[in-house]
Amino acid sequence: MRYRLSTRAPFDLEATVRVLQRRPVSRVDLWEDNRYLRVLPTTESHVLIEVRDFGTIDEPNLRFGFRAGTATASSIPQLKRTLQRVLGLDVDPEPLRRVAESEPVLRPVAVALRGLRPPRFVNLFEAFARVVPFQQLSLEAGVAIVARLVERFGEPLQHEERRFLAFPTAQAIASANLAALRACGLSSTKAETLRYVARAIDSGELVEERIAGMPTRDALATLIELPGIGPWSAALVLLRGFGRLEIFPPNDVGAVRGLSALLGVRPGTALTRVIERFGDLRGYLYFLGLGYSLLRKGLIHNRSSAARGYAVGPGVEPLSES
User: Fold this and answer.
1) Model pLDDT for residues 10-28, shown as the tens digit of each residue
2) CA 250 and chain centroid, separation
3) What pLDDT, in 10s, does the model give residues 209-240?
4) What are phi and psi of 29, to 5 degrees?
């Protein structure tokens, strides 16, 4: 049986999942054969979810079903809410389109990425666990560490002689010893930070709903009080974990480099002015910059006829149709 997921058009499942992955080697967020695969928890066990779009970007017809594991009827609403969160299905695409296309140099990329939604991580612990490993490291190095954490601490689910993995729970990391965390590539400080956060979440000391109810300034201040969490980490947790699009992560070298290439603007005052022009949607620039880099690598396909012949950045060749 397949269950419907509602969202407003346009919506591009491939682009959204690719940006969620950041790199196609993700061990938990899988894009295969035009479908999104992910192991998700239910109150009973874990299930392997498959999401497909049987429609088009302009008329999405999103459905999800189960490829492995069993979910009861009572689990379906929660799974729907999780997928709506992860895929940004409840985000209104119209303000994103307007603000992106208001910048002439961004318009071709906004058209090429038409239907991209800002994705979110599944829960508060996953947000921390997919931010802390990247502190002062390259994207590739951080992705490799997260993959090892998933391999070591993620619950496996077998399907057709293949091993799928759930993302580690806060409880699993809370009970881990520091040596096992360091063996995944975390420094001693990061291992201690991640375990501290896991224990705070597992014990109920750090509650997602409480942070979600805070104004952004207060939420940032609360997260920065945690050991090992600075302004950059706190901002990314709120952006990628809570969908706070008013935040652009400060001093994010990779994001600034990507935006500079995309906009043809050197880092500094000029780039800051562009970011500030996005106002409460400045965080969407982070996702556009990431989407732009994936477009250039051919990991997101430009399927919009309206984008034919557009370049996707200064000095970049026009995108081909596929």
Assistant:
1) 999 999 999 999 999 999 9
2) 18
3) 999 999 999 999 999 999 999 999 999 999 99
4) -100, 105
Q: What six digits make up the tokens of 4?
A: 């419907």
The secondary structure element, H or E, covering residue 156 is strand 156-159
The answer, as to whether pTM is greater than 0.85, is yes
Of 306, 303, 308, 321, nearest in space to 18 by CA: 303
CA distance 97 to 114: 8
Alpha helices in the chain (DSSP H): 13-21, 76-86, 93-101, 107-112, 124-129, 139-153, 170-174, 178-182, 188-203, 208-212, 216-224, 231-236, 242, 253-263, 269-277, 283-296
Whether 316 contacts 132, CB under 8 Å: no
Rounded Cα distance between 290 and 284, Å, is 10
Q: Which of 100, 182, 198 is nearest to 133 (CA)?
A: 182
For residues 71 and 83, give the distance between their C-alpha atoms in angstroms, rounded to a whole number.
Answer: 15
DSSP-assigned letters across all residues of 231-268: HHHHHHIIIIIH--TT---TT-HHHHHHHHHHHT--TT
Peptide bond into 10 cis (omega under 30): yes
How far is C-alpha 139 from the geometric centre of its chain's CA atoms?
13
